[in-house]
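note to self: dont lose this again. the chain is below, predicted strucutre after it. 230 aa total, dont forget to put it in the shared folder this time
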Amino acid sequence: MKKITIAIDGFSSTGKSTLAKQLAKHLGYVYVDTGAMYRAVTFFAMQHGYINAESFDKESLIRALPNVKLEFHFNSDLGFAEMYLNGSNVENEIRTMEVSSFVSKIAEISEVRAKLVEQQQQMGKGKGIVMDGRDIGTVVFPNAELKIFMTASPETRAQRRFDELQAKGQAVSFADVLKNVEERDYIDTHRDDSPLVKAEDAIEIDNSYLNREEQFEAVLDLVDELMKTM
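---
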């Protein structure tokens, strides 16, 4: 059966990664979490003191980019690939609220985006891939056979993120999570380089009132209908 490229874009905490993992597993495709790549660069910047609550040394980070090596290693126990930064597993470290508070600022940097987009396009050359992020259908794979754009209300997304962080034992307040969601939305949609926009040929899914299985079935129907035409 012919393989396709599935591009999933959308706002933070819309469940893009969850959906992408489900689709990749069901179809036997490769899954790439581009958000994890930007989070890993953010974590690298934090480790080296390039970004904190008081300052952001963009130029030093740009100069250090050749020292950033990103890899995905499949974890058979978890059923998905984890993010490695310079040989170390950073999957847990990159999912904190602190990383979330800086990641959109890191993603604004053109040199960071260029480095990661090039890697992402290389990963998808053979098709049979599901990739999620902010600019997959518009920049990384503008010719993807299926493009999904996911959205939900800020309050719904903040609640999901809040519940996820609490389940991991992180002490956060709902107000702080909502503020972070809204700030990321603004930065993602207003940056000069590859802002978050819905591709003209993308299918929008508002999952404010959909559970994971309903969402998965809806998108799987789209995949099945597309495959019938190929």
